[in-house]
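Narrative of activities, Objective 1.

The group set out to show that a structural description can be obtained from nothing but a protein's sequence at a throughput compatible with the screening campaign. Below is one input-output pair from the validation batch, recorded exactly as produced.
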Amino acid sequence: MMVSDYGVVESQHCASTYQVADYIERQGIASMLAFSGQQYVGQLYLQEYNPEFSESGGWTGEWPWADFQVAEPLHLRGRFLILGCYHVGGLPDSSRDRSLWGQGIGTALLKAVIEWYRGQAVIDGLISWALVPGCKELLQGAGQMPYTVYQEHNFREIRRVNDPRWFEAVAEVDPKGAEKDLAVLRVMLLDADRPTP
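Output recorded for this entry:
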């Protein structure tokens, strides 16, 4: 995402062009965009992990996807980027074109971010929180990937979190999915110690 993309593509998790510019300057990237020809089809937001940040209530406020309060401390050294929301089919007015879901756009965004990360010298790894693979409705609504997708791309699990907020959400849309794994939230890490996909 470039500053000139703000407002042209879906920009829900960026407050202004200044914030986009700040992310690019500080962390090297604000988000990864996906296009099919000239058509914008998706976006993956990124935010630098701040081990001192905590905000009860989840994805609200300035850092909507960075609530690691329930997962801290992670005991990580260095600079890490959190993979945020996958907004596949997101439109500039924040509505979504659901016809684009399930076509591999999210996975393509993940691969592009991994490739970008491999070329960086100052970023030590990528972090993501992931859900059990059975709760498709919740994954799509929350804009996330199941942990199995991250495992396929050489992320390793570093923490399981039994967060009652997620358990209730999973149980509501997929009771059997919740029963499969009570620790529905997993913290996944890809770092320099892992082999290249």
